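Quick one: structure tokens for this chain, please?
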Amino acid sequence: MIHDYLPILLTAIVAVGFAASALIVSVILGKAGRRSAVKDTAYECGMLPIGNSQPRFSVKFYLVAMLFILFDLEIVFMYPWALSYKDMIRQSSTIFWSMLSFVSILTVGYVYALKKGALNWKN
């Protein structure tokens, strides 16, 4: 029985040993470097780090991103459904009606987003 857990134990020992050795080497080599004001400044790809760190994004950007995620998750639910559809339809037609209701709710949401102008890029 102990032979079954021996690979797991060896993997754990190697992982802990690697982490400990990486930390020890980091502390030893880290003391060799000297800190200066130039090294401690933020590096901004050659730009001086003056001003706001990030530009402000429009709320429209986040709204479109959330709509993309919402409609992209539709595929996550439809793919397994499509794979098991042929086998499951023989047992009951519930699988068809459940997906039809899911798609109809998504369609209502899509039409609502279009009517509100959430996907209108000109504004």
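Residues 2-40 form one domain.
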